[in-house]
Amino acid sequence: MTDARRPIGGILAVDDEEGVLAVISRTLEAEGLGPVMTCSDSRLVADLLEKNQVSLMLVDLVMPHLGGIDLLKLVSKQHPGLPVIVATADADVSTVVACMKMGAVDYVTKPLSRDPLVATVRRALEEGALRYECDRLREQFFEEKLRHPECFGDIITADPAMLRMFGYLEAIAHSSQPVLVSGETGTGKELVARALHSCSGRSGPFVAVNVAGVDDATFTDTLFGHKTGAFTGATAPRKGLAEAAGTGILFLDEIGDLSDASQVKLLRVLQENEYLSLGDDRYRPLRARIVAATNRDVSCLREDLYYRLASYHVKVPPLRDRLGDLPLLVDRFLEQAAVDLRKTKPTVPPELYVYLANYDFPGNVRELRAIVFDAVAQHESGVMSTRLFLERIKAGAQRAQGKTPVSRERTLRYPYPLPTMHELQESTIAEAIKRAQGNQSAAAQMLGVSRVTVARYAARQRRS
């Protein structure tokens, strides 16, 4: 049986007049609301529903064989949840009420007019999609199991928060509503957007564009294209990326850097679901789903644009909040670096993960990958030296000096009265051993002291 909740199916229009069906099909597909299947023999509807994904039905009330009332009964019994709009030349209130009680979600009057037809169909599709998404979110919440884990194969993680994010992405994948992906630089926001595209089942491609620093004219031309003669030098028409994306996903990276004028244009496109090419006076329907990403605070966006973009808001956690993934990520990057540099995959000492876990990684996964690749490039043979990593970590920490810390408190706070130098030294060594998970060599490396100093402290603790 067709899953009537799926919002990615087509529209089935049923009417015994071929001319009416042609008008419906042409009108809705021109507005990007297709595909539209038509049926002039109501006896064939049951078979069509069984063999095709249908997200909405539009049926005439008065037809030979099976009328609209009969079809409503069929849908309510065999395909509960499938939204149905009835078309009637009789706008009698009692007739409309009777249809609503039998499951119709709305009605249009005949003869059909373009604007009411388009508005009614669009509203019914959006409401059906929202119901479907609520069902998916509810199921995902209780099941906590991915239906399509293969969609997330490029994201290396075993972190519970990341896996919950995957479940959320699956739940919203079939929606047409915009998505905002936020997270620090290097967390993998584009990988998240690509995973969403893989889950969606959309036939169109994934088209990505970085809009940082793009001026208003370039933004419009890049996304929406231009006609010949639209401006000096426009000797040929150009298709924009919105058209290139088709029914796929248009990914706008670094949306927080977009100028205010361009944000206003994007807002209108999202509100009206249509766009205007440069030099054109005919609006085109936007068929692609918009997914935007930013590494800045969302307050950088216009408030009205934020609420449009964030129909769904995916927050990608920083690497320092998923330290359990360090061994998985390092292992994957070691493999990739070895293949890239035509070397044997090296072995790393266990204490390496202690050092990595005590670094904030301002560049997140992208920075870790760069560190691993650089270390493999310098590695000669045997077990890889931690020095190759520590030099890059130290350099990264120095670059971060003077910047506002992201998560860890950098300012020491002393009790009153102040501790003695001996007490301060003892507590600092104790903290280093704790962070190093008992590894004295690693603790000494973090403090910049000899292993003997740490060992003496540990010996005193054992005697006391």
Please specify the SSE layout and strand pairing.
Layout: E1 10-14, H1 18-30, E2 36-39, H2 45-51, E3 54-60, H3 68-78, E4 84-88, H4 93-101, E5 106-109, H5 114-143, H6 160-172, E6 179-182, H7 189-200, E7 206-210, H8 216-224, H9 241-245, E8 249-253, H10 260-272, E9 274-275, E10 284-285, E11 289-294, H11 303-309, E12 312-315, H12 326-341, H13 352-357, H14 364-378, H15 387-400, H16 421-435, H17 440-447, H18 451-463
Parallel strand pairs: 1-2, 1-3, 3-4, 4-5, 6-11, 6-12, 7-8, 8-11
Antiparallel strand pairs: 9-10
Helix pairs in contact: 5-6, 10-11, 12-14, 14-15, 16-17, 17-18
Q: What key phrases describe this protein's structure?
A:
five-stranded parallel beta sheet; Rossmann fold; single chain; alpha/beta; 18 helices; disordered N terminus; 12 strands; Helicase, Ruva Protein, domain 3; 4 domains; 464 residues
